[in-house]
Write a structure and sequence with these properties.
Layout (H helix, E strand, L loop, with lengths): L1 H27 L3 H4 L3 H29 L4 H6 L1 H35 L1 H7 L2 H23 L4 E7 L5 E7 L2 H35 L5 H13 L1 H20 L6 H26 L1 H7 L9 H44 L2 H4 L3 H29 L4 H6 L1 H35 L1 H4 E12 L2 E12 L3 H23 L4 E7 L5 E7 L2 H24 L1
Antiparallel strand pairs: 1-2, 3-4, 5-6
Pfam families: 7TM_GPCR_Srx (PF10328)
Protein name: G protein-coupled receptor
InterPro entries: 7TM_GPCR_serpentine_rcpt_Srx
């Protein structure tokens, strides 16, 4: 169950990350639709999304790879500072969202109880001051983590049954202090928010007339704050039953999985509520523009909007597939290189070719996650533009030589399977030689076994060396003299994306034709079959 909870948590965080980026972009454009929202409510939500983005980045780049046991030596050696980053994510950033939830709840309370003075009390200048104080307190809370507290790590069995690395801070006292801050201050804040919204609900039910916009914003604020309530509902009953009655509601693994899932929900709920609850905000988040009166224009607009939605959905599905298969690739490679008896029983050519495919897929995934997708989303666009002279080459290496390598290995596996079925004796041939020796009327019979394999281990290694060598040779022109380049396009989150490629139409055409030739040859093979 803990594995399932971990996968769901990862999906929520990863799928919501592009939405966080898009939401922040829309909020900073100061559209008329956005400006119509209550200023304090809108600005607080923007701060929550910034905090959630920081949380997601640490989660994706630090916390989860370490927890899955991906490059554990790196995370162990760098735990002296990554442990600090991990605690900053777990306590100050999460506490910041709790304070902002309380601020939004107080804003909704004054909107209902003091509608005439509400605008004056939550003036733009005052809201900026409050947010500045909140962020300053969050930064101050992080200072002890910078110095003198040191980062540390512990090891545990990861969800994929490898040795995971848990990043934390050294010493029981610092850990206890930050746990108390998180549980006491954060927990009390969220409980305060729950009671505040309960009071607001009672207040609304007793009021005869309430502005529709006020009620709508209040409901949205309550939904946004449910993330903190979920954390309290997971944490409080488990702690109370454990401390007071000595009964564990869940095992430690399941509790950790539920706790991470609650934090993931808290991280994701804000942009999804705004996307679902406000049609005009949804229209902006999905890249829509103002509708025109013409029926024909509306029809074309609806088709375009549907295509944009489909584009976003396909991009998200692609990202989820690549990112979630990455730990499995790492685990598979580790298992294959261990040389277990169960693995050794597999056909040597089949096993070696699959391992090479996984290595190629790992290279593809690393380029996809670290270069291709961040550039395509417009994240740190200036960096990718300035470094396109070599990142463009890497991108083409991923798109053509690595993809061609997997195609060649697929062909090798297909030939291996064909020889196993059509020529079983030559594929794995055993010759039995009977030797009869007569020594003083005593007959000794010796059986000598000779194993002949067309796909012998030495031959398979030679084939794989040739395949990988040809792949590396294919990359040489991309190292020199071909240069990298970039073009710009509208990304799935409607920011300016960077497409990394190589400069010159002829090099692009050559590599595209190489890939096209491979695809056509594959189609011919399928037709023949």
């Amino acid at each position: 169950m803990d594995t399932a909870l971990t996968i769901v948590t990862d999906v929520i965080i990863l799928v919501t990350l592009p939405l966080h980026c898009r939401y922040l972009f829309v909020m900073l454009t100061k559209d008329v639709t956005v400006s119509a929202l209550d200023f304090a409510f809108r600005t607080s939500l923007t701060s929550i999304v910034v905090a959630n983005l920081l949380y997601s980045i640490v989660f994706i780049l630090v916390q989860e790879p370490a927890a899955y046991g991906i490059s554990p030596d790196f995370y162990r050696s760098q735990s002296w500072w990554l442990g600090k980053i991990s605690i900053m994510q777990a306590v100050p950033i999460t506490l910041l969202t709790g304070i902002l939830h309380a601020m939004i709840a107080l804003n909704r309370l004054t909107a209902l109880n003091y509608p005439t003075a509400h605008g004056k009390f939550w003036s733009e200048k005052r809201v900026h001051r409050i947010l500045f104080i909140i962020w300053a307190l969050t930064i101050l809370e992080c200072i002890p983590l910078i110095y003198p507290i040191e980062g540390f790590y512990t090891e545990f069995d990861s969800p994929v049954r490898s040795i995971g690395v848990n990043l934390e801070v050294k010493g029981s006292v610092p850990n206890l202090i930050y746990q108390v801050i998180a549980m006491a201050v954060g927990g009390l804040l969220e409980i305060f928010v729950i009671f505040l919204y309960a009071f607001i609900g009672i207040r609304i039910s007793r009021m005869k007339t309430v502005a529709r916009s006020t009620v709508k914003t209040t409901v949205a604020a309550m939904l946004v704050s449910t993330g903190g309530c979920v954390i309290v509902l997971v944490f409080l009953p488990h702690m109370m039953s454990t401390k007071l009655f000595g009964v564990h509601l869940w095992s430690d693994a399941v509790f950790n999985g539920l706790f991470k899932l609650a934090f993931a929900y808290n991280n994701a709920v804000t942009p999804w509520v705004m996307l679902m609850y406000y049609p005009k905000i949804r229209h902006l988040l999905l890249g829509g523009k103002t509708h025109k009166n013409s029926t024909t224009t509306s029809w074309f607009h609806s088709i375009t909007l549907t295509q944009k939605k489909m584009d976003i959905a396909l991009t998200i599905v692609t990202d989820v597939i690549i990112v979630f298969t990455f730990p499995l690739h790492c685990r598979y490679l580790m298992v294959m290189l261990r040389g277990d008896i169960a693995i050794s029983s597999l056909d040597i050519a089949f096993r070696a070719a699959l391992t090479s495919i996984v290595v190629a897929n790992l290279i593809y995934s690393i380029v996809f996650i670290l270069i291709q997708e961040p550039a395509a989303y417009g994240i740190f666009a200036d960096f990718y533009r300035s470094q396109s002279w070599w990142l463009g080459k890497i991108s083409i290496m991923q798109a053509v030589p690595i993809t061609m390598l997997t195609g060649i290995l697929h062909t090798m596996i297909a030939l291996n399977r064909m020889s196993a079925l059509i020529y079983p004796m030559e594929h794995a041939k055993v010759v039995v030689v009977v030797v009869v020796v007569d020594d003083d009327d005593v007959v000794f019979i010796y059986f000598a076994y000779y194993w002949f394999q067309f796909w012998s281990e030495a031959r398979v290694r030679r084939i794989l060396i040739i395949v990988w060598t040809l792949t590396i040779v294919e990359c040489f022109p991309l190292i020199y003299p071909i240069e990298g380049h970039y073009t710009e396009f509208v990304s799935p989150i409607r920011s300016v994306g960077v497409n990394l490629e190589i400069s010159g139409s002829i090099p692009n055409l050559i590599y595209q034709m190489t890939l096209l030739t491979k695809i056509l040859s594959k189609l011919e093979e399928v037709n023949e079959i």
